[in-house]
Structures are given as C-alpha cells and as structure tokens.
Q: What sequence folds into this?
C-alpha cells in the first residue's frame, strides 16, 4: 500500500516536471512575445500594428483547446508536423503571448510622457530612451498582469492531455484508469497545481517588492 | 556660415507653429546674445512654451528659421540629438526618471550619449549636485525629494550635458511658495556664471533682478520686449499693461 502510493506520487512528480517544462518555455516565450509586440503596438508602427491586433484577437477570442487541435491535427495538412511536446509549449507561448501583448501595451502606455520627453530633450535617441526609461518603468507596471497570465498558462498546461503529452493531468488520468483511485490521485495532482501557482504568485510579489521604486506609489 | 561677433547666438526668425488649424505662434522673431538671460512672460496660451520647445526641436515648426551658433537647425541636416545636447531644458513637472537614483538620473545620458566613463560622469554629477545644494541626496530616489529638490536635480541633470543654452519652462509653477526661492537661487547662480538662458516664468521679481531682456507674448506674437524694468514699470502697450495689472510686478 505504502509503496503503491510512493510509486504514484513519483509518477505524478514526473508529470509535474513535464508540465513545468512546457509551462516555463511557454511563459518565457509569451513574455518575450508580449514585450516585443506590445512595444510595436505602443510605437504605432502602421502595418505591423494591424497584424498584431489580428494575432491578439485570433488567440484571445478562440478556445485554447481549439488552438491546440489546429496546431496538432491541422498543421500536418500543410506539411508542418509537430510533436506533442512542441505543440504543447508552442500553444502555451502563442496563447500567452497574445494576452501578454495587451498587458505590456497597457504598461507602455502608462509610462508618464514627461519622463520620456525629458530623456529626448537631453539628446537620448528614441530607441535608447525606450530601453533606459520606458521599458524599466513599464516592466514594473506589468508585473501583476504578466503574472496572472503566466499562472493561467501553467494551469492550462493540463489541456495538453489531448495531444498525449505526458504532463501532470495526463499522468494522473492514466494512474486513475489503472488503479481507480480517483480521489487521491486527482487530489494529489490538484495540490501540486495549487503549490506551483502559490509559488509563482509569491515569487511575483517578491519581485515587485524588489523592484519597488522608493517613495513612488505607482507599484504597490 | 560662421558666427561673427555681431551675429546673435540664437536667432529665431518668423517662427510659426500650428496645431491643426490652430496657429499658436504667428511669426515670432527673437535674437539672443551669448550670455543673455531672456525672460518670457505672458498669459496662458500665448505660445511661450511652444516657442521654447521649438529651440530644442521638441516642437515642430510650420515655418521660420532657427539659427543656433550659426547653424540653421531646420535645414534638415542637423542631428536632432546633437542639437538637444547643446540645448538644455528644464520642465514644470521636473520629469526625473523615477526608477533611478539622483546620481543615475544625472549620469544616464552622459554615459549613453557622450560615452563618458562612469567614474568621470559620477564625479561631475557629484560636483553639480553640490552646486545646487544636494550633495547628500545622491542615493535618493526622485519621489523621496521635495518638489524644489527635484527641480534642482533636474537643472543639474540638464547641465550634465554641458549645454550652451538653457531653457526653463515655468520651472517654479508647480512648487510651493517656500520652495520657489531655492530653485530661483540656482538659476540666478547659473545666470551669473554666464549661461545663455531663455526663461518662461510668472516670477516678475526674477525677471526684474536677473533678466537682461523681458519679452511679453500674447496670442502667439511678441507684443513688447525691452529691458525688464522698462517693460514692467513703463509698458508701452495696453495688452502688456492689462497683463501686468494682474501680477505683483
């Protein structure tokens, strides 16, 4: 009995490891996509702007599950064959990237214009002003929103069961079909999700406190 | 084109600026000598700030010529960032970088643009902060300082670029009355050091005491200009008289 439980927990932990792997890739890429596309939106670059609005709408206004099906089952029709692993991190990155684009666009817009003007008035070129003034202030503003998206990406990694990627939910489901121990297996899986999400949000709060601008009330 | 002894240091010729169909500067002419302190007064919406902002190319000009040290700024051949290094500007709301310490506020642009070594720009920054009376605030963040202190940091930050001319856009308007003096004192010292200055302000005592020339603007034109005492005590236009009657000049 004792060894059975240990064996199940070990299996679940390996599933959790896979969930963390695709989530980490998806979250980092999502933030990267969000910063770059959000910055282009903020700069109002004509044609790119419209393309980005299209991308954001496409991924925010369709179900993640359908996006996963399209990536895994439809792309082979046009010659692109993705493994379950590739489908998993890519789906999370694209879906998260769409949300992060809006998070970072809003953060860039919230940076006070006066500070940007002051930098330009000193002779700092536009792109350098973006790197030294706009970006550092915007990142602080974006932390809370970006964390919410990241946590949702991690939770959504459970959708990858549908392409047969061996993440936590997939493993839990397999154990249940072998052992019929529904309550304890999904119970442990739930606790694992809960634990990771709690760590993520605690890390975000710690990060916010570390980057807090002394005396400034913008970041709480 | 070379700057002869007779040529003005800064020459604004027939400057026109429009926002859409609204013309805010309707042909302004202004010559400034090297080391001259020009104080610009006038009611809100008279175009004072827009005029200042044309000099460092923050404000696009519809028509006219701006010649700084013999160079035509609007020829399209000037590197706007190079021009701005020569033209320092201080704003009403200080606009310090909130995420950087006072020291880094001063050293950021010199290090990036002038490629100055960190040690050198930090030494210059400490020197300038001592001059504006804030030697002990190097490690503070802007929002830990009073408005007057922030504005003095902003002046020091502009001076870090070794500007040839300084623009002051209502720099004391957002300050509590007791903090105005500390900022004006820094500006007086700067004027005495021979800095060429264009100062938009409502501080008539500063205009009288420090200004070499007083310019009164209204409705996008220069109505009157001359020696500050003459303009303030014996205005020759009704519009000027009317404006001054509402001030403590």
A:
């Amino acid at each position: 009995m004792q060894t059975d439980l240990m064996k199940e927990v070990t299996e679940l932990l390996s599933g959790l490891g896979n969930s963390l792997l695709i989530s980490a890739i998806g979250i980092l890429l999502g933030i990267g996509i969000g910063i770059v596309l959000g910055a282009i939106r903020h700069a109002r670059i004509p044609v790119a702007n419209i393309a980005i609005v299209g991308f954001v709408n496409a991924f925010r206004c369709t179900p993640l599950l359908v996006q996963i099906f399209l990536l895994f089952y439809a792309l082979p029709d046009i010659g692109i064959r993705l493994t379950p692993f590739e489908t998993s991190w890519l789906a999370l990155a694209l879906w998260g990237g769409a949300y992060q684009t809006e998070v970072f666009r809003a953060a860039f817009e919230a940076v006070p214009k006066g500070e940007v003007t002051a930098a330009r008035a000193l002779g700092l070129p536009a792109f350098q002003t973006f790197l030294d003034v706009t970006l550092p202030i915007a990142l602080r503003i974006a932390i809370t929103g970006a964390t919410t998206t990241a946590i949702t990406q991690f939770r959504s990694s459970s959708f990858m069961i549908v392409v047969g990627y061996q993440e936590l939910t997939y493993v839990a489901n397999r154990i249940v079909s072998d052992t019929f121990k529904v309550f304890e297996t999904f119970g442990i899986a739930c606790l694992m999700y809960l634990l990771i999400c709690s760590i993520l949000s605690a890390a975000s709060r710690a990060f916010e406190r570390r980057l807090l601008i002394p005396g400034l009330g913008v970041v709480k | 084109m070379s700057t002869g002894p007779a040529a003005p240091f800064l020459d604004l010729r027939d400057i026109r600026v429009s926002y859409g169909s609204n013309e805010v500067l309707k042909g302004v002419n202004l010559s400034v000598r090297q080391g001259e302190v020009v104080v610009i007064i006038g009611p809100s919406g008279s175009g004072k700030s827009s005029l200042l902002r044309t000099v460092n190319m923050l404000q696009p000009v519809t028509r006219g010529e701006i010649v700084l040290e013999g160079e035509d700024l609007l020829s399209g051949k000037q590197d706007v960032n190079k021009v701005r290094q020569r033209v320092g500007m201080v704003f009403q709301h200080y606009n310090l970088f909130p995420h950087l310490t006072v020291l880094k506020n001063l050293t950021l642009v010199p290090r990036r643009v002038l490629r100055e070594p960190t040690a050198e720009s930090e030494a210059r920054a400490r020197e300038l902060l001592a001059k504006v009376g804030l030697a002990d605030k190097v490690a503070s963040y802007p929002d830990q300082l009073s408005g007057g202190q922030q504005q003095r940091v902003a002046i020091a930050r502009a001076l870090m670029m070794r500007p040839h001319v300084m623009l002051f856009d209502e720099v004391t308007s957002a300050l509590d009355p007791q903090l105005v003096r500390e900022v004006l004192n820094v500006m007086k010292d700067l004027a005495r050091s021979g800095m060429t200055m264009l100062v938009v302000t409502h501080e008539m005592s500063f205009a009288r005491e420090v200004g070499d020339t007083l310019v009164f603007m209204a409705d996008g034109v220069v109505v009157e200009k001359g020696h500050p005492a003459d303009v303030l005590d014996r205005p020759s236009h009704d519009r000027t008289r009317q404006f001054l009657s509402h001030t403590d000049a």
Chain A touches chain B through 24 residues (CB under 8 Å). The radius of gyration of chain A is 21 Å. Helices of chain A lie at 2-43, 46-60, 64-74, 84-110, 113-121, 126-156, 168-179, 182-211.
